[in-house]
Amino acid sequence: MQLTTTLSTQLKPKPDENNLGFGIHFTDHMFNMDYHPEKGWHNPRIEPYAPFVMDPSTMVLHYGQGIFEGLKAYRTARGKIQLFRPQNNLKRLNYSAHKLCIPQIDEAFALQALKELIRVEKKWVPSAPGTSLYIRPTIVATDPFLGVRASHTYRFFIILSPVGAYYPEGFNPVKIMVTRDYVRAVRGGLGDTKTLGNYAASLLAGEKAHEAGYTQVLWLDGIEQKYVEEVGSMNILFVIDNQVVTPMLNGSILPGVTRASVLALAKSWGMSTSERRISIDEVFAAHKSGALTEIFGSGTAAVISPVGELKYEQETITIGNGKAGPVAQRLFDTMVDIQYGRAEDPMGWIEPVD
Ligand SMILES: *Cc1c(COP(=O)(O)O)cnc(C)c1O
Questions:
Q1: How far does the centroid of ligand 1 lie from the alpha carbon of residue 347, in Å?
Q2: Do 124 and 27 touch, CB atoms closer than 8 A?
Q3: Domains contained in the chain, CATH given
Q4: Cα separation of 99 and 92, whole Å?
Q5: What is the CB neighbour count within 10 angstroms for residue 194?
Q6: Residues 209-238: tens digit of each pLDDT
Q7: Which atom from ligand 1 is nearest to the alpha carbon of 300?
Q8: Which of 67, 193, 218, 254 to mutate for ligand 1's pocket (most ligand atoms within 8 Å of CB)?
Q9: Tens digit of pLDDT for each residue in 37-82?
Q10: Global pTM?
């Protein structure tokens, strides 16, 4: 397949690097590619960022047959641009595609196209501390049709957004509330995919948590409402008796790239790790006995997000002394040092762009 590039003649002014926020600004160009049953994926192109014209009956708008990914490009001190494990995101995109009856993409081609798009937009990769270029690959069903079936046609697009530092005020723990009123996903469902509806399903619980003064919810499993699954839209990890413990991938948990990286790093430091079922009762018991020393979330946006306070039913516990723990801090520092090229990359996680 031949990638074509059409450059924009009207470049936007660049936003202030010290005030980027998240997902607000978009670059001058985007990647688009279409799927048709007779042509397969075809017409891959980089072109000016522009709105879509869509028939109101477009399937994704009605039945949510759409998937996405989230990853970042980082600018190193030497001015180079690099990606962190992008192959894992493209592989996961294909896994999500499989579960939503969306045709598979060529992962190697998609990576080449992504790198070319970033090269076209290299001036948009910010260099202020902690900033990055957020990348949003997305595939949506495009048949204009209201019957319930898998679409026959699709659009794959990639948009880019320069984003600010996640921790402008320092690496501070958040307050989390366990919800028993709502579940995010169930085994056999789509919880292990990055699909649109999962985020719609999480909104009301998130709003209730905000109203109660919490940053996010901790999700329990959808069947027994007993086992810990995720925190907000991050994976969750615990340090119990010096072991890094995280819920095993059971079909309703999103297999995070950050989660996998954190487990690999902890192992490489000689720490014990365990992927298993962990009940919310065990978490509270481990806190009482003093064995639980840290809780943190993991995800591309924050890398590591320490949990300082956890509320479940009538009980609230404080983890550590409300400060980030040593394991969370070391994982965060090591991950961002690798991502920004300040540390060696012994695992081969970095993919250079230019
Ligand atoms: C994206 C996501 C994560 C984190 O995945 P990363 O690959 O580490 O960014 C965790 N949970 C949910 C529900 C997600 O959508």
A1: 20
A2: yes
A3: 4-163 (3.30.470.10), 174-339 (3.20.10.10)
A4: 11
A5: 22
A6: 999 999 999 999 999 999 999 999 999 999
A7: 9
A8: 254
A9: 999 999 999 999 999 999 999 999 999 999 999 999 999 999 999 9
A10: 0.97
